[in-house]
Amino acid sequence: MHCEYRCLAAAFLLLAVAIISPGRAEHVVLLDTTTEPSLRWTTYPYGPDANAAGWVEESYINFEKDINWRSYVVCDVTKQNVNNWVWTPFIERGLANLIYIEVKFTIRDCSLFPGYALSCKETFSLLYYEFDVATREPPPWEPDSYKSVGRIAAGEGRFNANNEVVINTETKAVKVTKKGVYFAFRDQGACISIMAVKVYYIVCPEVVINFANFSATPTARELTQIEHATGKCVDNAEVVGGTPTYLCKGDGKWYLPSGGCKCKAGFEADMEAQTCIICPPGKYKFGVGDDKCQPCPAHSKAPDQGMSECRCNTGYFRSPKDPKSVPCTQPPSAPQNLTVNFVDQSTVTLSWNPPNFVGGRADIVYRVTCDMCGPSVMFMPNIEVFNDTKITISGLSPVTTYKFHVWAENGVSNLTSPENRQFVDIAVTTTEASMKSASVNNVRVMLVKASEIALSWDPPMTGFLDSGDDDAVEVYEVKFYSKGDESNTSNKLTTDRHVVFTALKPKTEYGFQVRAKSSHGWGEYSPTIYKTTGQLLGSGKNTQQQVQRKSGMKDDTGKTN
């Protein structure tokens, strides 16, 4: 009989993939005769000219085991030169690299045929033929066209009584490369029943691990080989820690996973189900990982699902440096009680109290601006923002009104518009310069090194100190800066009439000015003198130089330049 295409189609409908645990192999069935109501396979010989009955399709029924299988039987033991063939339909291999064929059969013992068995055998041959196209023509039956799978004997026993049936099971593996394969059973004089045939291949089953999905993967062509599978991240996850890979062994079991995926921001991980669940409104998840969605912190909201951070309510802000888990905050109010602590002809000292409202933050800093202040005015602390609640401004002009603004700021102040930032201001007029105030005299450079300069000077002229102890110099202030950078000044206070500046830049010209302070206030700054730091010398000897005023000053030897 010839197998028609509807028979082949029915065979392919048997392919089933069951989702099982990753520890177990999975069989993808290509042919299973136990589920077929009719086989109608191709046989040889056939027809009225055949000299033997050959293979005949019958039913094997066992009511106790609920079995009703279609089978092929042959028993031409009374014939000579027996050559009976039966072929399976063309079986497409699909994704298989290695196909298994499982045969359930019985063989009668030749002792059951005493005297009249002419060619009784107790084995049969299993062969296969790979082909790239299924045709309507019968497959070739010449033995040379086939590859042998093996000669099969009854390993579990032959039955030797009419009421005793011993079912043998034989499983063979065949490496395949073409589109499909025919299997053939060849009988040369045995009494055989091919009761059931199953053709399948083994896959490592579809599995999700480390939030990566691995499709069912056929095993390799050799049992000792492994197949490298690459996973695909589950929905709403992304690769973290390397491309997800898994190894499929020849027995259909996975092992040695590496790499993997993590749930994206806005999605939390369900570890048991290996899925990423979107965060509901009112919750968020920041960043990629296994974390759960969290409720929004104070003064923020998540109106939509899948949010990676909560939006601050109107009037509240989040600094880029703040964790997404902290509440949104506000800028502080203005500083309180701005007060003038000291003022003279060139110096003002201000102080204030912290703001009443700090906005929910602890990083309060202050900033002071000044109207009318020129580049020579110096602020102490000499940085744009600072933590202290007082400041000294020096280098001011006498009898001049200055307006100072003191701003309180925190980590979110720069996120608000400038007109909404809070400050307090005060106007201060410096005093008139004292008639007794005078400049120090004879400022001179006593020592120059690669990064050091030493200065010395004489006290103010007589008249600044002629009124008794009240006119005594309380402190000297030395102002210095790099030439060309007069707006970036530094100062040093001392009660001595000399000072050493260290850690200066080599080969750099510096300007120096000195003034004195008595009970009458600060005197005027001396004229600026300039000196360049010396070069690095291998001998390490000091270089001493003196600088005199343009009007002419005496050096330490009494000579005038």
TrEMBL record:
GO BP terms: axon guidance
Keyword Transmembrane appears in the UniProt entry: yes
Record-annotated Eph LBD domain positions: 26-209
Pfam families: Ephrin_CRD, Ephrin_lbd, fn3
Signal sequence interval, chain numbering: 1-25
Compartments (UniProt record): Membrane
Protein name: Ephrin type-A receptor 4-B
Species the sequence originates in: Sipha flava (yellow sugarcane aphid)
Gene encoding the protein: epha4-b
